[in-house]
């Protein structure tokens, strides 16, 4: 045991534990994110719905809102279309 | 029955090609007819690690495109019987690999009686890596005891179980964790993740731990798979991996802490 080893070890002790903790938190998050991910067909679905609606009503890009919500054992596809005010 | 095994990692530089070369050579040395395919199209290196770089005439992409037969492209190893190498193309890009093309080559290898087909994956999670893992029955995930490597291994494990052919057909790819560049001294000192930490984080069964060793660089310098160096710890550890893969119960070796030689001053101030 060297003279200064006591102080030196104090400074950078057990970075491996830190690495393990960080990884466990990160990987848990990444797995949770993955299960919440929206399906990749969503943008295309939105575009096609927009095209159909525009055949009948004039709506702008922002007036159609499509999102998926994850519930316990089912997913909800929510479609929100804001129609222009009728005169 | 032939088995397709992908050697993958996500992260680059962790020892995929070294491990592929060692693993394939080990399987062949145990009497199994083995082919090892380099999937790193554009950046081939397996030929160099295996020491056959001057014998490459045709490559994987030539076979896929029908410009050469599989027999013409396969390089028969001169040191180990039963071992054949299929090099990657140096000039094409990764789009040269198609599912149909890769499948036809793997099917032909199976028909030729190859027992093991080892796919050396490129780094990353793009097309080349995807093609290497798509047809796999089993996967060896190479990981260094280091945060970014462990995270990338987790990503690649996710891809294996969601996007491989096996996953599409409702089967699972059998996973093996291979830890390389391991230093028991640094683990003991508390500044390297231990093998148990990594197994706990990734929850994949461990097939082996390769200690950090000078012999790995010496082996690649000379173009000899490190497993053929039966004097070196890394070589012996790779042979243990092969024996475990073939079903033997082999205990882990080279996990002991070695006493560092210290000079007078480092003893005093260390």
- How many DSSP-defined strands of chain A? 2
What pattern of helices and strands is seen along the backbone of chain A?
A: HHHEE
Strand segment count of chain B: 8
Overall SS class of chain A:
alpha+beta
- The quaternary state of the protein chains shown equals heterodimer
Assign an overall shape of chain B.
globular
How much helical structure, as a percent, in the residues of chain B? Answer: 40-55%
How many H/I helical runs of chain B? Answer: 13
Largest sheet entry of chain A: 2 strands, antiparallel
Number of alpha- plus pi-helical segments of chain A? 3
Structural class of chain B: alpha/beta
Main pleated sheet of chain B: 8 strands, mixed
Major β-sheet strand ordering of chain A: 1-2
Low-confidence stretches of chain A: none
- Approximate helicity band of chain A: 40-55%
Quick synopsis:
The complex is a heterodimer of chains A (87) and B (270). Chain A is α+β, with helices and mostly antiparallel strands.
């Amino acid at each position: 045991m060297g003279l200064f080893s006591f102080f030196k070890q104090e400074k950078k002790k057990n970075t491996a534990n830190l690495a393990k903790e960080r990884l466990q938190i990160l990987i848990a998050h990444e797995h949770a994110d993955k299960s919440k991910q929206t399906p990749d067909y969503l943008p295309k679905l939105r575009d096609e719905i927009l095209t159909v609606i525009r055949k009948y009503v004039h709506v702008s890009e922002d007036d159609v809102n499509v999102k998926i919500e994850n519930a316990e054992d089912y997913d909800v596809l929510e479609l929100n279309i804001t129609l222009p005010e009728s005169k | 029955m032939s088995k397709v095994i992908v050697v993958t990692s996500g992260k680059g530089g962790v020892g995929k090609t070294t491990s592929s070369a060692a693993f394939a050579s080990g399987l062949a040395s145990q009497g199994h007819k083995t082919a090892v395919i380099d999937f790193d199209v554009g950046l081939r290196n397996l030929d160099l690690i295996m020491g056959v770089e001057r014998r490459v005439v045709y490559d994987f992409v030539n076979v896929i495109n029908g410009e050469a037969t599989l027999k013409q492209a396969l390089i028969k190893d001169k040191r180990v019987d039963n071992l054949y190498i299929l090099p990657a193309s140096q000039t094409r890009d990764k789009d040269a690999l198609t599912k149909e093309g890769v499948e036809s080559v793997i099917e032909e290898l199976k028909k030729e009686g190859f027992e093991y087909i080892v796919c050396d994956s490129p780094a990353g999670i793009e097309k080349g890596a995807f093609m290497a893992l798509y047809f796999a029955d089993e996967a060896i995930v190479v990981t260094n005891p280091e945060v970014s490597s462990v995270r990338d291994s987790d990503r690649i494990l996710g891809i294996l179980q969601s996007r491989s052919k096996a996953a599409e057909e409702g089967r699972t790819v059998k996973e093996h964790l291979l830890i390389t560049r391991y230093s028991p001294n640094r683990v003991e000192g508390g500044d390297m993740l231990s093998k148990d930490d990594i197994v706990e984080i990734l929850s994949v069964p461990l097939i082996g731990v390769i200690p950090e060793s000078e012999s790995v660089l010496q082996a690649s310098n000379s173009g000899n798979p490190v497993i053929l160096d039966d004097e070196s710890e890394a070589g012996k550890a790779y042979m243990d991996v092969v024996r475990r893969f073939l079903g033997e119960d082999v205990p882990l070796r080279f996990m002991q802490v070695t006493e560092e030689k210290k000079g007078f001053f480092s003893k005093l101030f260390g």
